[in-house]
# Entry
Amino acid sequence: DEAEKNIQLFDGTVRLLLPALFKAYKSMILIISLGAVVRMIAPILVDKKKDPGVLVVDDKGQYVVSVLSGHIGGANALTNEFAQAIDATPIVTTASDVQKTIAVDLFGARYGWVWDSEEKLTPVSASVVNEEQVAIVQETGEKKWWLHETPMPETLKIYRTTGEAIAAKPHATLLITDRIIEKEEEILLENGVIYRPKSIVLGMGCNRGTSAEEIEQLIDETLAELKLSKKSVKAIATIDLKKDEQGFLQVTARNNWQFITYTPAQLNEMPLQNPSETVFKFTGAYGVSEPAALRCANATDWLLEKKKSGNATISIARITFDEEVTG
# Structure
């Protein structure tokens, strides 16, 4: 039943197969001695952003060891999952997991957060695991990011604003924001990492056949004017009449954004300051970009109510995240 269960069998020695398997799979579970695995994978390692997660299991299935790409590659999580499945003991040695603290390179990853830059990941990670004072400033994004059952260490402190964090003079900073930060805030990045949560919705409308280039130029210009990071855009939202609009489809695919459409009735449920009878005549909705942004973001107001340029319009709203920080 291998074909039915999508199982592929391999012939030949594992050492010769590994280079191809490394490129083809996200994770690998090897029932081979740890020493042999280390020798076989050493020549083919690239870096932690590209290497697959590698687990080693002993012949009796007593231990599951996370060997490679524990965080970004997902080996640590898979180690715990697989160990539970076969009733084995998981072995995870990365410092943040052992100390039950924040894994800086994986912080917010389950929610789609991305770093602005990886330059300071290593020194900031060192500050976290060495129990130095670390400031966490969260301006937006999901707040249930503390993943351990134990309380958050006292060395990790949450501040409401960047100003409060600067005054505290921490050794390192984790800044969660969709803003392009101001010059006076850059002191936090001397040993800090900016995380970009998916917190921005672009409500948009356009004339039929508007090019992807024109749409994306409007997006880039508008985000720059509002000093918002493009990395924090989650979706383009519009009316369902535009569900096949190639410009929107190309821009969302290019940027790996969601493309969400609403019926006129759904859009008309949103309160508008300037409903348009003209738009209603052609679409059945009293507005497109403005209500689409509010509905998708679950927001009550816009960061930008509406801007028109050429053949497209844009409204911007920030997603409402209700849950509180836990830790």
In short: The longest strand covers residues 200-206. The CA atoms of residues 22 and 259 lie 33 Å apart. The mean pLDDT is 91. The chain has eleven helices and 14 strands.
